[in-house]
Each structure stands twice: as C-alpha cells, then as structure tokens.
Amino acid sequence: MYVSKDRGGLRLPKLIFALNKSEGEHTNISELQDDLVEKVTSIAIFGASGDLTRRKLIPSLHTLRFEGYLSEQTRILGIARRKMSDESFREHLYKGVEDHSRIDPRTSKIWEEFSKNISYLSGDYDDPETYRNIAKKLAQDDPKFREKSGCLFYLSTPPVLYPTIIKHLGQGGLVDTQEGWRRIIIEKPFGRDLNSSRDLNRQVHEVFDEDSVYRIDHYLGKETVQNILTFRFANTIFEPVWNRNYIDHVQITMSERDGVGHRAGYYEGAGVVRDMLQNHLLQLLTLTAMEPPVAFNATALRNEKIKVLEGIRGIRSTDYVLGQYDGYRSETGVDPESRTPTYIALRVFVDNWRWDGVPFYLRTGKRLARKTTEIGIQFKRVPFHLFSEQIDPSPNHISLCIQPDEGHHLGFKTKVPGSEMVTTPVDMEFHYRSLKDKALPEAYERLLLDALSGDASLFARGDEIELAWSIIGPILEQENQRHSYSQLSEGPREAEKFIQMDGRRWELACVEH
Ligand code: BG6
Q: Which of 51, 55, 219, 281 to mutate to test ligand 1, by most ligand atoms within 8 A of the CB atom?
C-alpha cells in the first residue's frame, strides 16, 4: 500500500492514519495517496527564517519527499520579515537539512530537485500587500491555486502574530477555493490561558472550519507516543489489568538535562506549566488513561481524550510542587528576579469508573539529572504474601519508554535459584533499537504528512485545548510558590517529600541507574 519504494528506516504507517472520514474527502486510501502524490500542493510557512523551519520542517519535508510521500510538484513558500533571496533561503535551509535530517542530503541526491520548488517572500505580517504577494506567488507557481490545489499554511511565528496572520489570510482571499483544500497548522502555545485560548479559537474559526485546523503537539508525532495506543489496544494481555483494580498509581516523567538555552525570551513568559504541562504531559496522560475508541479516526480518538480531561478533578494547591533551578536567573535573557517555574510535580485524579482513586503523578523540569520521558504503571502489591518475609516487596510495573531509549519494560518477580524461597525483581525489555536498521521517523515527518493527508487524529481539537487550559488554570494563578533545586539534580527536595507523603516514591525504569 505504500507510495514509496522501501529505502530503509521505519515506514510511516500512513495507511492507518490517513483516512479522515470526517472531512468526507476520501473514500479509500489509494485515492488519498493519489491525491497527495499527484496534485499540486503548496506549503506556506510563516516565520520561515526561524529555527523550527530549518531544524524540523524542511528536514522532515525533505525526508518525506525522499521516501516518496510528497509529489514532485509540492511547492514550499517561506514567509518572514527578514529580507532574503530565494537562493540564500535555500542555502540556509540546506545547512539545516545536513545537520538535522534523518536522510543526509549528500546521499539522498534529491536536494537540488526538491529545493527548486522552495521560494521565499519577505513581508510585514500586518501588511495586506504581503498577502497579495503570497497569493500572486502561489498562483504563479501553480495556476490552479485558486480552484483546485491544496494549501497548508504553517504558523511558526511568535504566537502573538497568529491572530493577525489568520485575519489577513481570510481577508486576502487565500482561504477561498472552489475544489481545493486549505488547512492551517498552528504551533504551540495555543493561547496563554483559558480566555486567550478561547479568543484564539474564535479568531481561527472566523476564517477556518475546525476540520481544517491542526493544533500541533510534536509529542503526538513521536512513534513511541503513538505506540501507547498500540500497546494498550493491539494486545489483549494489558487492557484487562489497566484499571483501578490492579494499578496502584501511574507516574509520567519528562525530565530534561538542558536549561532554557537561547529560548529564555519565550520561556520567561511561559514557564514549565505552559511549556510542558498544558500540552505534552496532559497528552501523555490522556493516551494512558483513555477508553478504547470505537474507531481509529480523529473524531473517535479525540472524543475519548476529551472524556479523560473532563474527568480530571480540580487541582488544589496541595496537589503540586513547583521549582526553579539554581542559576536560572543568571541565564541570558532571564529576569534576575524571575519567579518563572522550571519544574513541576503534580498529582491528578481522573474521576471515572476505570481510574477512581488511582493517582497520576506527573513531573517535568529543565536542567535535571537526565533526559528521559517515560510512563510508569505501578501495579498493586500481591494481596497475600505466600512466601513469608523474605519476599522482595517491589510490585509489578510496566514502563513505556518514550525517549531516549525507546521501548518497554515489564517488571516482575522471580525465584532466586537455591533451596530457599527467595524472590528478586527482574525486568523483561523490548527496545526499538533491536529492530535493526530501522531509524524512528521524526515526529514532524508524521505530523506534516498527516496534515497534508487531512488526518487530524494526532492534533489537538479546539475544545481539548480549552479543557487543558482550564485544568491548569489554578496552577497558573499560584505560580509564585516555587522551590529551588540544584542543576542536574532530581528536582526540588519538596517533590520527593510530596510523593513520600502518599507512601510512594519516584521511580524510573527506562534509564540506567
Ligand atoms: C517543547 C518545549 O515543546 O518541547 C521545550 O517548548 C522542550 O521547552 C521540548 O524542551 C521537549 O521536546 P523533546 O521532544 O525534546 O522531548
């Protein structure tokens, strides 16, 4: 079923995700593939001189093209304020592809041909002239642009510009089309709080139908994040125990070694709650806690995720600990008096039949001891100790290792060989690295392909985003109460005490200790 020839690397399972019946455009997969490969498609990237375009978007599009997912006729138009010729824009991008692409442009040998269709336009985002120029440019590259062609707009500018760009796209007639499609990808953060996300949703909906809006969370593009669903719903052995009867609690950890680096300008105004909790962490929570959807499509999946968010109990000030790493205030671009939190540990309950009484402990922070993202399912202890006090008390666990060493661990107990009944915990592991020669696709490859195919399953819906903001609202109001922690540590000591007070401790199974 794949469009491309196999050239190594894990194939993107587009055939599963590609159908989006809610848009009603395609009735079968091959029709959709023909559409994507044969029709002219434009991708117009706003904020194209920035890091995301160079490090992620163009390298991913280059890979998709190499693997045969993109038509030779796909046009890419970069738009930004900075003045630049097409030629220097392409040179700037080439470096990014060399450094960041899964497929080296020196061996792919498609760069020359691929880059011929990349052009650049400089302009002020608030000037209607810019949008007239965009329309002219797109129509010049593709005379059918107004009637038949598809166009994906990608907003990769500072979020404050989103309403302006969206308004001008509408007023400039760029979203009107007779037969073609128009979609928009909007980078995070989508709003700063509940009210601003509602305003933004309203502004977006004045120009685009919800079906055409793709709010991106790159975590959903990660192979291992999608694999949470496969693990749960393509196996029979896990789902029966995936509930309050067997699970004691769940831990989701996203720890980063890096500090804010050169992104202090953005991070100072965002902090860990907006940067990581509102989106990535809550997404992992919903995928872990959701009920099996009735079908594998955007509507069914997102409906189930929404139900999890609706079930989250109101967060109180005793449910979390905030922290800031020592030295954060001396980082370039950070206010010396900054109160921005860089760490959070949080306990949430999902009040529904499946999860009643099961705490979910979430934590994330910058400048911690290690880079790891993992979901730990801690099972209850055995109800009766048959083997007396020599038994190791550690209960069973399943750990889903999202990154960097992607895979799963299953922890259980076994008898130590010998005449006595002594047990020891052992670990059964699967790692993606054991799938030899299979490089994991980059998250943006998957998400760009899905947006081009009209599949919004791995993107957040407007109501989902608003719910997420309303859940974290109480934390945003109390962000000032934060503790300090040493760089490259496990986080604030208060976070240890926080979980110990519940009779538990933080666990990591995916990293070497
Ligand atoms: C981004 C955040 O969304 O995710 C960053 O803005 C964070 O602050 C990054 O570092 C983490 O992503 P990943 O894929 O490296 O875990």
A: 219
Give residue 430's pLDDT: 93
pLDDT in the model for residue 369: 97
Taking each helix axis as running N to C, give the angle between helix 162-171 and helix 194-205, from 0 to 180 degrees, rounded to the nearest 10: 10
CA distance 104 to 71: 20
Quick one: how far is CA 367 from the chain centroid? 20
Range 20-45 average pLDDT = 56
> Pairing relation of β-strands 372-379 and 359-365?
unpaired
Active site residues: 280
Ligand 1 atom closest to the Cα of residue 188 is 3
Of all protein residues, whose CA lies closest to atom 4 belonging to ligand 1?
A: 276
The continuous run of DSSP H or E covering 151 comes out as: strand 150-155
Residue whose CA is at the smallest distance from ligand 1 atom 14: 219
Which residue's alpha carbon is at the smallest distance from atom 13 of ligand 1?
219
Instruction: Residue 302: name the closest of 462, 495, 124 by CA.
Output: 462
Which residues on adjacent β-strands are paired with residue 344? 322, 364
Give the distance (Å) from ligand 1 centre to CA of residue 217. Answer: 10
In angstroms, the CA 215 to CA 383 distance is: 45
CB atoms within 10 A of CB 421: 12
Interhelix angle 282-289/298-311, rounded to 10 degrees, is: 100
Task: Give the mean pLDDT of 257-270.
Answer: 93
Q: Is 56 helix (H, G, I), strand (E, B) or coil?
A: helix
| Span from the CA of 512 to the centroid of ligand 1 (angstroms) | 22
Per-residue pLDDT band for 390 (boundaries 50, 70, 90) equals low
- Calculate Rg over the CA atoms of the chain: 24
- For the chain, the distance separating the N- and C-terminal CA atoms, rounded to the nearest angstrom, is 43
Distance (Å) of CA 355 to CA 67, 300, 313, 348, 411 = 42, 20, 11, 11, 22
CB-defined site of ligand 1, < 6 Å: 256, 275, 373
Note the pTM of the prediction, 2 decimals: 0.91
Q: Where are any strands of DSSP class E within 319-371?
A: 320-325, 343-349, 359-365
Cα-to-centroid distance, 280 and ligand 1 (Å): 8
Distance from Cα 26 to the centre of ligand 1, integer Å: 34
CA 160 to chain centre: 21
Residue in the block written with tokens 């997420």: 468
Yes or no: say if 360 and 349 are a contact pair by the CB < 8 Å rule. Answer: yes
Q: Is the pLDDT of residue 26 over 60?
A: no
DSSP string, 457-491: TTSB-HHHHHHHHHHHHHHHHTTT-EEEE-TTBSS
CA 257 to chain centre: 19
Instruction: With beta carbons less than 8 A apart as the criterion, state whether 487 and 367 touch.
Output: yes
Give residue 108's pLDDT band: very low, low, confident or very high (50, 70, 90). confident
Distance (Å, rounded) from C-alpha 250 to C-alpha 269? 30
